[in-house]
Structure formats: structure tokens, C-alpha cells
Amino acid sequence: MKTLRIVALSVTLMCSASACSSQNDASQLKRQITGDSKGAASSNAQCALFTQTEVAAYVGMPVGPGENTSEGAGCRWNSNDDQAWATIGVVSPEYFPEPSGVDGFKRLPAMGELAWVAPDSGWSAGALDRDVALVVVVYGTKATEAAAVSMLQKAIERRVR
Predict the structure, then answer these.
(1) What is the rounded CA–CA span in Å between residue 158 and residue 109?
(2) Which segment of 28-32, 62-66, 78-82, 91-95 scores lowest on mean pLDDT?
(3) 40-51 pLDDT, tens per residue?
């Protein structure tokens, strides 16, 4: 479980790695990691992929509006008490994580050669889609393997072609 949490954190940090390497200011780094430096979440393509109602169905609790993460390369929806949340991150394929050492890791051959799903404190799923890698994480009472895979499939279907 610890390995996948590290992978999820790595995805967040890798999304902003290029920007981070050129920044020394701690407050600027914080804004980059949280996504605050990329403008309104309403203009974030990842936040537009799902409604709050859809995300709530994946995690089992109402969630707030999507919030920028990783300089706008990702989006996160949280319940008011942080007992449920979901994230989606879109990164360059060179940063595509693969937690193959995690117990419960499975390939998703129908979604591509390198697609996967794995348990975490919730569930994570990732796949390559054309020129990017997508990773979703779901956590909450309804956060299941099937929920993570479904959210990933919907994200791939809904991405602007």
C-alpha cells in the first residue's frame, strides 16, 4: 500500500517537475504543486471531465467542485470531511507510474498494453492514451477496483480528441 501512495505522490510531483526545477521560492513551489498557479479550476480540462455528482458516485459521498492539482495537469474532488476524494492526473508518458510491485496490481489489457489497476488506501488506475498518461485515484466507501477502472475509461472517452 505504501508503494502506491508513493506512486500517487510521485505523479503529483512529476507533473510539476519541470516548473519546480526552475523555482527556488517555497511559496511558488507550493502554488505549483497544489495547482494554484494555473488559474481557475473551471478552465482545467481535467476538472471538466466529471461532474461532482459523477465523482460522488465513484467515491460514495458528495464532493465539492474540482480543484487544480499539479499546475492544472490534474484535478481533485474532495468531500467536506476528506473521507472521500478522487483525482485525475494527466502527465507525459515518460512519467507514467507502474506500481507492479503492489499486491493486487492487475493489467487491464482491454485498455492498452500498459494499463493497470491497483489497490491503495482506495484504488488507482492508469493507462496511456495517445500522447499522455492518465492516472485516476478514488478513495471512499464506494471506491472499488471497478470504480477506478470506470473513471479511467470515462476520462479516456471524454478527453478532447
Answers:
(1) 20
(2) 28-32
(3) 666 788 999 999
Q: Determine whether 117 is exposed, middle or buried from the number of CB atoms within 10 Å of its CB (0-12, 13-18, 19+).
A: buried
Going by their DSSP bridges, the two strands 116-119 and 123-129 should be labelled as antiparallel
- Amino acid in position 64: G
**Chain centroid to CA 114: how far?**
17
**Sheet hosting strand 85-91, strand order edge to edge:** 67-69, 74-78, 85-91, 132-139, 123-129, 116-119, 106-107
What does the DSSP assignment read for the chain?
-HHHHHHHHHHHHHHTHHHHHT---HHHHHHHHHTGGG--GGG-TTGGGS-HHHHHHHHTS-----EEEGGGTEEEEE-TTSSSEEEEEEE-GGG----TTSTT-EE-GGG-TT-EEEESSSEEEEEEETTEEEEEEEESTT--HHHHHHHHHHHHHHS--
| pTM of the entire predicted model | 0.76
